[in-house]
Amino acid sequence: MFGLGIPELLIILFIILLIFGAGKIPEISSAIGKSIKSFKKSMKDDEKKEEKLPKNNDNKPEIPQ
Q1: Domain limits of the chain?
Q2: What per-residue confidence (pLDDT) applies to 37?
């Protein structure tokens, strides 16, 4: 679709290296890793909350009385 091969990826990585510098690359990758880890944790927490909710099996909306 995009046709990104090894030469194109190397050019992109070189441009990123020029923009951020060699010292910032580990900091940026660490921040991205922490963000992904936090996102996955929040998704798992939401799934656990949904499992704890009571399920309505008769497919009728619950009407408070």
Answers
A1: 19-43
A2: 94
